[in-house]
Design goal:
Strand content: under 5%
Number of strands: 0
Number of helices: 2
Distance between the termini: 11 Å
Low-confidence stretches: none
Helix content: over 70%
Structural class: mainly alpha
Radius of gyration: 7 Å
Order of helices and strands: HH
Largest sheet: none
Shape: flat
């Protein structure tokens, strides 16, 4: 989960979309 949060902060909106995909 930490990784997903890090991606969210790094990519922003794209990270949110990636969260849904993953």
């Amino acid at each position: 989960m930490k990784k997903r949060i890090a991606i969210l902060g790094s990519t922003g909106s794209i990270g949110t979309q990636a969260l849904e995909v993953v």
